[in-house]
Specification:
seven-stranded mixed sheet, three-stranded mixed sheet, alpha/beta, 10 strands, Rossmann fold, about 30% helix, 10 helices, globular
Length: about 260
């Protein structure tokens, strides 16, 4: 065993930490490391769909300080907190809308706590909510197609599209079909469940089939949670790369090309 391996093993045994050189860590270990060091993505435009109160804004600003971040949150009370939190952050633009496969206004049941991350436009997800008048309320939200939004706002390219919509991912992706077909979304990170019986998260296979049709390839799986594994509710985040980026810009981090 080499010196580096001995040090790692000692840290693991004594302190419970595992030390590893970032650039040689296995794909899926660290999302930020993979984006920057393995994929080499340098985005100018990031879309944060399902931004909640802005938990991911600082994460993306820390690794991509020059990027413009578009944050979208449809729940009015939650959006107010997002807007307030991001008001002094340069390059962050907040919008009180949801994305889907149609343009419409719709009523959904949401948790009254504006910081909740369990709200969704998914009918199946809403049907599984515990009906408690003191905990839930009905709100009207605005839904647009992402294709229409980028056209209206003259945004030709999304370098990184993050989707966290609690079971509504397929509808969001169906609404950006034109941009996906043209390869104008370089990378997509979205939450997915790994069993069809998981009513909260979109099934991995459905997302994978849809994105493969547009030439996207799965790069890695991140933050795979096993809290609900016994009941098949475990989930994780999937990172996909477009065919154009994979063939023309990506360099294999393991062999140097």
């Amino acid at each position: 065993m080499g010196l580096a391996s001995k040090i790692r093993q000692t840290l693991l045994n004594v302190f419970g930490y595992y030390l590893h050189e970032a650039k040689t860590m296995s794909v899926g270990t660290n999302y930020a490391v993979d984006l920057v060091q393995k994929i080499g993505l340098q985005p100018k435009t990031i879309f944060d769909v399902g931004a909640n109160i802005g938990q991911t804004v600082d994460f993306y600003r820390n690794i991509y300080p020059k990027a413009s971040i578009y944050s979208f949150e449809p729940i009015p009370k939650t959006f107010s907190k997002l807007q307030k939190y991001c008001s002094q952050k340069n390059g962050v633009h907040c919008f009180n809308i949801a994305f889907g496969e149609t343009t419409e206004s719709m009523d959904i049941e949401v948790v009254k706590d504006e910081t909740s991350v369990t709200n969704s436009l998914s009918n199946e997800f809403q049907a599984n909510l515990k009906k408690d008048s003191e905990s839930y309320e009905t709100v009207r939200i605005k839904v647009e197609m992402l294709d229409d939004f980028v056209k209206k706002n003259d945004i030709p390219q999304i370098d990184l599209l993050k989707i966290d919509t609690e079971g509504y991912e397929i509808a969001v992706l169906n609404g950006v079909e034109k941009l996906l077909a043209s390869g104008k979304v370089s990378a997509i990170i979205c939450e997915a469940g790994f069993m069809r019986s998981n009513s909260r998260n979109t099934y991995f296979g459905d997302i994978n089939d849809l994105l493969e049709q547009h030439g996207y390839s799965l790069f890695g799986i991140y933050e795979m949670g096993h809290i609900g594994f016994i009941k098949a509710r475990h989930y994780g985040n999937l990172l996909y790369i477009s065919k154009d980026y994979r063939e023309n810009k990506y360099k294999n981090w393991q062999i140097g090309y």
